[in-house]
Amino acid sequence: MSTVPDPAGADGLDTLRGRYDRMRADLQALQAQPVKDLPAIDRLVDALEQLQLRVKAELGIRGNNPNE
What we know:
By secondary structure, this protein is mainly α. The protein is about 65% helix and about 0% strand. The chain has 2 helices and no strands. It is elongated, with a radius of gyration of 15 Å. It starts with 9 loop residues before the first helix and ends in a 9-residue tail after the last helix.
């Protein structure tokens, strides 16, 4: 059994999912602060969008319509 993760396989998606989960937790923590750091929130939302696009690409999903 290989210990090297396959970026196109389940290991790659698990890695992306872990990054996504950590970034979402960071976003929630930033949003919970009494004084909002809006530039940091914007940067994190942009990074989450890019990560989501990578996940969709790994799954072979194109566009916003899952029926495409």
